[in-house]
Amino acid sequence: MSDAIGIASTGLTLHRKWLDAVSDNLANVNTATATSGDAFRARYVVAQAGAGDSGVYVAGAAYGKAEGRMVYEPDHPLADAKGYVRYPDMDLASQMGQLIMAQRGYEANASVVDRAKTMYEAGLQIGK
Fold first, then answer.
1. How far apart are CA 45 and CA 15, in angstroms?
2. Which helix (H) or strand (E) is 46 found in, with range?
3. SS3 of the chain: helix, strand, coil, percent, to 5
4. How far apart are CA 90 and CA 87, in angstroms?
């Protein structure tokens, strides 16, 4: 039972970090920058399976392109002489899909921890 809790806790950590990355991406999906600078770079969590049955871990992060996408907005305060502004190259629908997947994964792992705890408590009651 303790293995189930340990493995599920690694999943909780991974999904929490994934949720953090997606929430940062969503918060900056409409962040405009001048064309002379880099656009906000989306962050993606890279997961890696642990050895044997030790769970899953965050191996690092991958980042989107700094070039972003150029949008013609001549009235924007950050527009260059040609009227262009740089936005992150992110798809809102894709980010929302990732948010839902990360949230469901977190909930599933939390459920495993809760059920393993209940089984552990039931085992202690039997031993009394």
1. 9
2. strand 43-49
3. 50, 20, 35
4. 9
Rounded Cα distance between 45 and 106, Å, is: 14
- Ordered by start, the domain boundaries in the chain are 2-29+37-66+90-126
Residues 6-36 as b/e (b if ≥16 CB within 10 A, e otherwise) read ebbebbbbbbbbbbebbeebbebbeebbebe
* Residue 32, helix vs strand vs coil: coil
Is residue 39 classed as helix, strand or coil in its secondary structure?
coil
**DSSP-assigned letters across all residues of 66-117:** SS-EEEE-TTSTT--TTSEEEE----HHHHHHHHHHHHHHHHHHHHHHHHHH
What is the Cα–Cα distance from 66 to 39, expressed in whole angstroms? 5
Phi, psi of 58 (to 5 degrees): -85, 115
57-87 residue pLDDT tens: 999 999 999 999 999 999 999 999 999 999 9
pLDDT at 1: 52
